């Protein structure tokens, strides 16, 4: 009885063993295949050089990205600090007239009772935020931190000097929020007025 043809080919079995099971010898086809699979030394060196170049390029990219990210973080932190300082400076500037009123009340002896406690608490709070007053009688005049509201000459000074503080200045850290308003005297005698010349 002939074998049935069911439309399927018979399975093909290939013996890919590299050693002949009968003789125990290495088959030549396997040896040839092995030799063909081993790339020449020049090809290996070229592949190694290409891989080394790609690795160097990827390393350079990563280092550049890391540097950019580090700079970005520093910039964000610097901007955050600047925005905070700007906000605090704006709030403190709005409180300067209140501090002026407290100073005038203290000068006139009106800072008593509960109002004195509130004033002390407010001054402590703004000091904690970095606000400090400046401008003393006898300070050398500095146009960067002083605003001259009055001018005169005096033989008692050797350089332009704040002889009277009309309103203290305030700064927050290195930032001047308001210059000290002062009367300035320069060395020399007071110039005679025009009315004195007319009398002569």
Strand line-up of the largest beta sheet: 1-4-5
Poorly predicted parts: 30-35, 193-197
CATH homologous superfamily title of the domain at 130-190: Head domain of nucleotide exchange factor GrpE
Number of helices: 4
On the 0 to 100 scale, the average pLDDT is 83
Largest sheet, in brief, is:
3 strands, antiparallel
Class inferred from helices and paired strands: alpha+beta
SSE pattern, N- to C-terminal: HHHEEEEEEH
Rough outline: elongated
In the CATH classification, which architecture of the domain at 130-190 applies? Roll
Helix content: 40-55%
CATH class of the domain at 130-190: Mainly Beta
Features:
200 residues, alpha+beta, Nucleotide Exchange Factor Grpe, Chain A, domain 2, three-stranded antiparallel β-sheet, three-stranded mixed β-sheet, 4 helices, 50% helix, elongated
Description:
By secondary structure, the protein is α+β, with helices and mostly antiparallel strands. The chain has a domain at 130-190: Nucleotide Exchange Factor Grpe, Chain A, domain 2 (Roll). Helices cover 50% and strands 18% of the residues. It has 4 helices and 6 strands, in the order αααββββββα. The protein has helices spanning 28-37, 41-107, 113-128, 194-199; strands at 131-134, 146-154, 161-167, 169-172, 175-178, 180-187. The N and C termini lie far apart (159 Å). The model is unreliable at 30-35 and 193-197 (pLDDT under 50).
